[in-house]
Amino acid sequence: MPFQALGLAPALAQAAAELGFTQPTPIQSAAIPAVLQGQDLLATAQTGSGKTAAYALPLLQRLGQGGGHTPRRVRALVVVPTRELAAQAGEVIRSLAQHLPSQPKVAVVFGGVSINPQMMALRGGADVVVATPGRLLDLVEHNALRLSAVELLVLDEADRLLDLGFAEELARVLALLPAQRQNLFFSATFPPDVQTLAGTLLQAPARIDVPALAMEDAVILQQAYRVDTTRRTELLRKLIKTQGWQRVLVFVATQYLADRVATKLHQGDLYATSFHGGLSQGARQQALREFKEKRWDVVVTTDLAARGIDIEQLPVVVNYDLPRSAVDYVHRIGRTGRAGASGLAVSFVTPASEAHWRLIEKRQGLSLPLEVLPGFEPKEEAPPASPGDGGIKGKRPSKKDKLRAAAAAAARQPD
Ligand code: AMP
């Protein structure tokens, strides 16, 4: 079995096979042997690369080599930025552990829900804890767990952790860990703050770069449609109907718009719902579960869902509002065409957002024809260039400023 050839125990290889993992993905082939040897790891990897199993499999094997769990001591700690990712990673780890002769105890903890059941679950200790940083610290303060025996630390989506403002919490968590441990560091991007964090954590790490989702990658077909701001919902409905799209993830700029677009589509004859940070944790988990179970045709969301959420083989992603940055564009379209499946990513370009679209294209080295669906020829005027574009000496707007201004202009447009 190919997974066994990487040095994994038969029980782990069997569990991987049962999840449909017949061949290791490139990150798994590179990471598993290095982690099994006890090396630190620095990996550039996107969600969709198979990174969860890349750390989960060798982590489980290494735990199996050590002693049993001690009360309130954690042996492996996986820190993730979002609740959804915590739940997802926990599920993958449990599935992969199912055939091990001695079952590790896996606890998943995140904020936004009552702390008591999590405290109960941690009674008697846990071998693996998957956690968001804030709740992890709360639990430490409640004396529900101790981090002084952690042998293995995984930071998953380190860039996202810092983006979400978790730097301080992360520093507090790190200070609670023993100096002697193995560290696995995953990040989709490597801006300077992430590099600094990696530098302080890792010792002579094995370095793995799985190429970012390549724009030229044929498995994701990208299209852009020109449309008036006020007619986007109509165009979306039309495309879903005429192209026979099923299970569409639609990105909008605000939570308000997510609810509004979902409601409008639902008033038509589409099963549409919204998914965003303004919903209760229960409602979010339910929406995600039901989408995975294919009960919804359309989920309208904000960038909250752009990273870390694994919905298998999502066929279509629509940028109803353009993302703020080129990097977000990559993350959004990465929700489709996953693990080798083909996908379609469609962007709506309004007269007001065209300049912003050009910047995204330029940053990605893309050049897509702007298509117009007959009957949807745009009539709106492009807004005048913002005052900042005037080229005042010493005040030339940076690319970032321009992206921000264009995104702000796009977000101001009501549908
Ligand atoms: P991840 O990057 O961990 O979020 O994984 C992305 C998707 O790839 C998930 O749906 C996994 O179930 C799937 N996956 C992970 N490893 C493999 C593999 N070796 N073969 C096929 N699918 C995989």
Question: Which key phrases capture this entry?
Answer:
415 residues; alpha/beta; 2 domains; seven-stranded parallel beta sheet; 16 helices; 14 strands
Task: Give a description of the structure.
The chain folds into two domains: about 5-210, P-loop containing nucleotide triphosphate hydrolases (Rossmann fold, 3-Layer(aba) Sandwich); about 220-370, P-loop containing nucleotide triphosphate hydrolases (Rossmann fold, 3-Layer(aba) Sandwich), CATH 3.40.50.300. It has about 425 residues and is of the alpha/beta class. The strands form two sheets. Strands 3-4-2-5-6-1-7 form a seven-stranded parallel beta sheet, with helices on both faces. A seven-stranded parallel beta sheet has the order 10-11-9-12-13-8-14. It has helices spanning about 1-5, 10-20, 25-35, 50-65, 85-95, 115-120, 135-140, 160-165, 165-175, 190-200, 230-245, 255-265, 280-290, 325-335, 355-365, 400-410; strands at about 40-45, 75-80, 105-110, 125-130, 150-155, 180-185, 205-210, 220-225, 250, 270-275, 300, 315-320, 345-350, 370. The longest helix has 15 residues, at about 50-65. Residues about 215-220 and about 390-395 have low confidence and may be disordered. The chain starts with a helix and ends with a helix. Bound molecules: adenosine monophosphate.
